[in-house]
Amino acid sequence: MELTFDDAAIAKLSPMLGPDRQLLLTFEDGVGPYSQHAMIHMQVQFTLNIIPANVTPADYDVALASNLGPVRIKGYSQEDLDEHLTLRFKANMDVFTLSGDGGLIDGNVGLIDFTQQQK
C-alpha cells in the first residue's frame, strides 16, 4: 500500500514537517489518542495528524510508504483504503481529499497539528 501526496499537498504540509515530526493518517473511529470522536459521523472519515517523531502510538501499527516519508495508520483501517492512495490539497477550498483506486474515499480530510498544542 502506498500514498502519494500531490504537489499542492506537499507545498502545504512541508513547512509543518521536519525530522522532529511525523504524519499519521487517522481513521476517525474514536480509537487512539489522536482520533477525534466518531459518534456524529456515519461515513468513512480520515484526518491527517502531525505528531512528534519520538512518539510511537501503539494503535498506529502500519507505516505506509509515501513521497513525504512514512505515514502511520491503524492497521485495521486498511479495510477502508485502496492499494494506491492519493492525497490532494485543493487550495481554493482549503481542503484535502483522499482517493484510491476505486475513487474518492474522503472529500474533506482534516488536518490537526498536535505539536502546536504542546507549546
From TrEMBL:
Q: Report the Pfam families cross-referenced here.
A: Fe-S_biosyn
Q: Where is the Core domain?
A: 1-113
Q: What is this protein called?
A: Core domain-containing protein
Organism of derivation: Lacticaseibacillus nasuensis JCM 17158
